[in-house]
Write a structure and sequence with these properties.
Blueprint lengths: L16 H10 L2 H18 L1 H4 L20 E6 L2 E15 L6 E24 L3 E10 L18 H37 L1 H16 L2 H10 L7 H16 L1 H14 L3 H8 L4 H9 L4 H24 L11 H5 L5 H6 L5 H24 L5
Antiparallel strand pairs: 1-2, 2-3, 3-4
Helix pairs in contact: 1-14, 2-4, 2-14, 4-5, 4-7, 4-8, 4-11, 6-7, 7-11, 8-11, 9-10, 11-14
Length: 372
């Protein structure tokens, strides 16, 4: 007998499916950047009270439409240079030509900034009291507007940070509802076929044929005017998800039609497995890449839908804060010309949608067993 030695197994040969997906995902540079941004954005939404420099409702009638203030890091003093972040103060002056009031830089006044500064009191998640903010003025009485102020003198940066919580969570909750409805109805349609398939497909075609924005507007406008912000938040999430499940249902149905004749499904049926077990335990796991692609593309659509509804005045309204409600401040040319920084919530929406799309593309490619 020849003396043969078995080669040790390679790390990739014994890696789990999740590990293989992660290794393939890491090779997708844009997807990695997108996932990092998504994680950071959701951390901002979770810890909004700590990260925002001020309370989102704190107003200053003397500083309406205050422009953004640039941060300077090197502080020149008589004894030398010091690394100490600060912003210059400003004062109102008259334009000598138009006589319009405008803010001019006041180089004699400096407002120093510090990390973990004490400021406005808050309750994190309405439970934990605190007053420490990630960044803020060393003197809590000094106003600072890193991204400018709105028409009531409220800090735009603080309002964008707080608006992330409503806009991003609506995307997650709406997709969760759509995912549940899409898997249930799409799975039943593809697995059972026949009259059940015919009925579900006619319902889906009817919903898809409806003009989306007018239906959203009609349903949102039908909500009671005196509904609480939390109740309106829940209803808007439900309205968006009730229309968004149809695409996922069609994807699941198509895959189920192809899978139900596979040998492993037949083996499970002959083994006495129930329909629900065959659907959820044997067929759905093979749809991972398709479900991931549909879900990650649906979250940006949900966020854009909430932004559109709030921008048009039928979504979340004050005192609730969302990116769409903040964009409503920039609905007229006069506001944009006076304070173009009011469009910054739109930049937050664009960055979030791009990051989610990049992440979804990377996850779809990494989870697709036929793509590698």
């Amino acid at each position: 007998m020849s003396d043969t030695t078995l080669a040790p197994p390679r790390a990739l040969d014994t890696a789990s499916e999740a590990r293989l997906v992660w290794l393939r995902f890491r090779r997708h540079r844009l997807a990695t950047i997108g996932l990092t941004l998504v994680v950071l954005l959701y951390l901002v939404a979770v810890f909004a009270e700590c990260l925002a420099p001020f309370s989102p409702d704190k107003s200053n009638a003397r500083l309406v439409f205050h422009p953004p203030q640039a941060i300077h890091f090197i502080d020149e003093q008589p004894d030398g240079w010091h690394f100490r972040p600060y912003v210059y103060g400003s004062k109102l002056a008259r334009d000598p030509v138009t006589l319009a009031a405008k803010y001019v830089l006041d180089g004699s006044r400096k407002t120093y900034l510090r990390f973990f500064a004490q400021g406005d009191a808050y309750k994190l998640w309405t439970l934990i009291p605190g007053n420490v903010h990630l960044i803020g003025p060393a003197d809590p009485s000094e106003p600072v507007f890193l991204l400018g102020a709105d028409r009531q003198g409220r800090d735009v940066l603080s309002r964008i940070v707080h608006g992330a919580r409503a806009s991003l969570s609506i995307g997650l909750l709406g997709v969760a509802n759509s995912l549940l409805l899409g898997i249930i109805f799409g799975g039943l349609s593809g697995y059972l076929g026949g009259k059940v398939d015919w009925f579900i497909q006619r319902v889906i075609e009817f919903i898809i044929s409806l003009p989306t924005i007018p239906i959203w507007l009609a349903l949102a406008a039908a909500l009671p005017k005196d509904m609480s912000p939390f109740g309106k938040y829940f209803c808007i999430t439900l309205i968006i998800s009730l229309i968004g499940w149809t695409e996922l249902a069609r994807v699941v149905r198509g895959r189920f039609l192809a899978l139900r004749s596979e040998s492993f499904v037949t083996a499970a049926w002959l083994d006495g497995c129930s329909r629900s077990r065959i659907i959820f335990r044997h067929m759905l796991p093979s749809l991972t890449s398709h479900i991931i692609a549909a879900v990650t593309l649906a979250i940006p659509a949900m966020i854009l839908a909430e932004t559109a509804l709030s921008f048009l005045g039928v979504g979340l309204q004050p005192p609730a804060i969302s990116w769409g409600a903040l964009l409503k401040e920039a609905q007229n040319v006069e506001s944009i010309s006076a304070a173009p920084w009011l469009l910054l919530p739109g930049a937050a929406v664009a960055i979030t949608v791009l990051a989610l799309n990049f992440t979804g593309d990377g996850l779809r490619d990494a989870a697709d067993p036929h793509g590698h």
